[in-house]
Input
Amino acid sequence: MTQINPQMAARLDQMAALTKAKRFLAREFLVWLWHRADCSDEPLEFNCPLNGQKRRARYWVDDRLTLEAESGRVHVHQMRGGAPAQTPEAAAGILSGKTIRDMRVGFHVEGLGEFSCTLSSKDLSPRSVQFPQQADAKDVTLQTAALAEPVGLRLDLMTTFLAMMDGLFAGFMQERMEDSWTQQLTVMRQWAEKRYEQARRDVERDAFRQDVPASDGVGKPLH
Output
């Protein structure tokens, strides 16, 4: 019978605990991620597992956002295209008690390029992952022998991407376990209220601009 050494057993326990935490806290994490992407200019820093180098990444809510309600007539509100997270409907959904069922997130990793994936509240497993173009990634020294091979390069990018996602979730967990988390929830609600008002004003401004007739530059309408 194969014996599992204590180090491997501890790693398996850690992975099981992490999986359970992701399932239990997935919806909170997605709202936290949306808030952080919208309000913070501070990039995520994580260690690249391939060479130990520290990398920095910026992230944003991309072109897909699905909100879900546990009760009421409208259970699911799916928004695609453009910037759905910037709409009044998105902020209003959060304020009304809806949670995020899935959300597409974009990442720009310094020296590597742009990644994107869809995160589901079911288990936070990245789906429909897109990597930087290989031509761009080859400009970066990942310092692995696999870099010269497309398959090896893709594995390197996936390893880097997963390390980035783990670093992001670890940052959330650190905040989630602090005593100030209740205050953070208040801050996030205030952010949603502000986001709703700003998005509503943007829609009204755009509608007003469409209604105003074009002019010749000196205030005279063009007919």
